[in-house]
Specification:
By secondary structure, the first copy, chain A, is of the alpha/beta class. The first copy, chain A, folds into two domains: about 5-120 and about 290-325, Nucleotidyltransferase, domain 5 (2-Layer Sandwich), CATH 3.30.420.40; about 120-260, Nucleotidyltransferase, domain 5, CATH 3.30.420.40. Chain A is about 45% helix and about 20% strand. Chain A contains 13 helices and ten strands. Chain A has helices at about 40-45, 45-65, 85-95, 105-115, 155-175, 180-190, 200-210, 225, 230-250, 265-270, 270-280, 295-305, 310-325, and strands spanning about 5-15, 20-25, 30-35, 70-75, 100-105, 120-125, 130-135, 140-145, 260-265, 285-290. In chain A, the strands form two sheets. A five-stranded mixed β-sheet of chain A has the order 3-2-1-4-5. In chain A, strand 1 (about 5-15) and strand 2 form a beta hairpin. In chain A, helix 5 (about 155-175) runs antiparallel to helix 9 (about 230-250) and helix 9 packs across helix 11 (about 270-280). At the A-B interface, strand 8, helix 5, helix 7 and helix 9 of A face strand 8, helix 5, helix 7 and helix 9 of B.
């Protein structure tokens, strides 16, 4: 009787989107799919579980592996599944006949292993939130920040977006310098510019619109700092963001661990402006930016299944994921 | 038939507490009472209306003015009653047989007139929120900030408290300098200090506790900056708060209006640390701090009833309010 093929499912559950990958052991990615936010802290356990289930179903259907046994589902998730999201996910996956055990892992560690297979180094993440970790023996042994939009997340998308809208409103209000961020913000909000000096209607309209959404949605305005190329206020915000992220990295640095430094999350992984500033500040031999934590989720998944992830397996995971994406 | 005595009720509805005063025209304060938060934006229209009604009932009962006709109720309130709080208040006052018309006024203007009867000048308010106004012809003609905790309120109690807890958490996290704010915050939260270097349990416990309440409650930690006398991080926060308030004042300054500058709200009215810094920065002939907006609410109330508030009436209102408080 031929041996039944064995696979694992890796899920990278992020604040903006969720990625699922079906990986045949030891390291061949077979199927891939994307769904909405899988962060239970941001959208609640129900919506996060729905995104996870949708991405897993999509990945299994693209993988076309009938008869393959799914040994486990490894989920890289903020808070590592510490909320009541686990039973929600289990029940949704049981609904499609998938009753493999769930294993939760740190989303920060998945970002780290998206950039390297090496068991020692650092990751700095700036997406909607922000934080830094140190990795030793393949495990996350130290963390800085990641304290959420109200209390920390310095240098994150929320942090940058909040500074952007406050700078624009201070400009409109006469409290701050004139900045190119102001017309960009008003345009994004669909609010007309002031009709004459002292016209406060644009301020009132912008304030109404911005308070109508949840606070974390200020992260949507971070991109304006990248658009306002060369603007003094925007440059200051990006400089301060990079400096804040450098402080988080410095807080987890250990003399015995040199690197690499992996940069991830929507701000660092997709926008060179902050990543370049941070790379210049962090004086590491090797700095690499990753777009998301999907490769790292696969690394963690095959490792949980007993496979040692060396340079060759890492290379195979990366190349085969690129091929199915 | 003797003329029936006529009085007005003045209400100073603040974010922390609400004050009501019964004033016999032209300017004799007869009764006074305090209730809870009367800010409909902070606590909702129902709770704000309940506080207003409770303070009015209390003031009427201490005034002991049976047979006196209440001509109107003037309410100094954030947003000047722009929410649906008005019908709530009307119905509650009708329930005690008080059907006088309600008139809404700016809470910032009430702060201004708590410090002076002069028709031209400025007020800077820093309580839970913060902003500055210019007054001409007895009316509020310009305003800066007052944009709420998420988008503005620079130098406010929330703004200071947010900086305090973030500085303490950055200290615990290794991202920021050691500060006396850290033990003060942990003590206030009832969270034990770290048991050894790298112990993150205090961070986790503090973060859980601080996210459990509404964001604006970070204003409760502003006082720690005053307690941490001589601490570098605390001094920096208070310097920055005073500088932010000075920018708000500068934004409403007009060459034709010299002063006075009235300082109010819980941060400026009751704590000399920020008020002294701001007074030094604002270079006005006359700067005076007021504890709340009660006198100013009386000024606005008797003015609405047709009384000109000159120096003599202002003096009578101030002295008689002190006597009944």
């Amino acid at each position: 009787m031929p041996e039944q093929p064995i696979a694992v499912v890796a899920v990278d559950a992020g604040g903006t989107s969720t990625r699922a990958v079906v990986v045949r052991l030891p390291g061949q990615c077979l199927g891939y799919a994307v769904a909405g936010s899988g962060n239970p802290i941001a959208v609640g356990p129900q919506a996060a579980a729905a995104s996870v289930a949708e991405s897993v179903i999509g990945a299994l259907s693209t993988a076309e592996v009938p008869g393959t046994r799914i040994r486990m589902v490894v989920l890289a998730m903020a808070g590592a599944g510490s909320t009541d999201v686990a039973p929600e996910i289990s029940s949704r996956l049981a609904g499609i006949g998938l009753d493999a055990p769930l294993v939760f892992e740190s989303d920060l560690l998945a970002t780290y292993f998206s950039g390297t297979h090496r068991p020692e180094g650092y990751a700095v993440i700036a997406g909607t939130g922000a934080g830094a970790i140190r990795v030793e023996d393949g495990r996350q042994v130290a963390v800085a920040d990641g304290l959420g939009w109200l209390l920390g997340d310095e240098g994150s998308g929320f942090w940058i977006g909040r500074r952007v809208v406050r700078a624009a409103l201070a400009d409109l209000d006469g409290r701050g310098p004139s900045t190119a961020l102001t017309p960009l913000m008003l345009d994004r909000l669909g609010v007309p510019a002031p009709s004459e000096p002292g016209d406060r209607e644009p301020i009132r309209a912008a304030v109404r619109a911005l308070y109508a959404g949840p606070p974390v949605r200020l992260a949507d305005y971070a991109g304006l700092a990248f658009e306002a190329d060369g603007d003094g206020a925007a440059e200051l915000i990006l400089d301060d963001a990079a400096a804040a992220l450098a402080r988080s990295l410095a807080a987890v640095r250990s003399p015995g661990v040199s690197g690499p430094v992996v940069l991830g999350g929507g701000i660092l992984g997709r926008s060179p402006q902050v990543a370049d500033r941070l790379a210049a500040a962090c004086r590491a031999e090797e700095v690499r930016a990753v777009a998301d934590g999907a490769v790292g989720a696969c690394v963690l998944a095959v490792r949980h299944a007993g496979t040692l992830v060396d340079a060759a397996v890492f290379q195979q995971l990366t190349a085969s994921l690129t091929a199915v994406r």
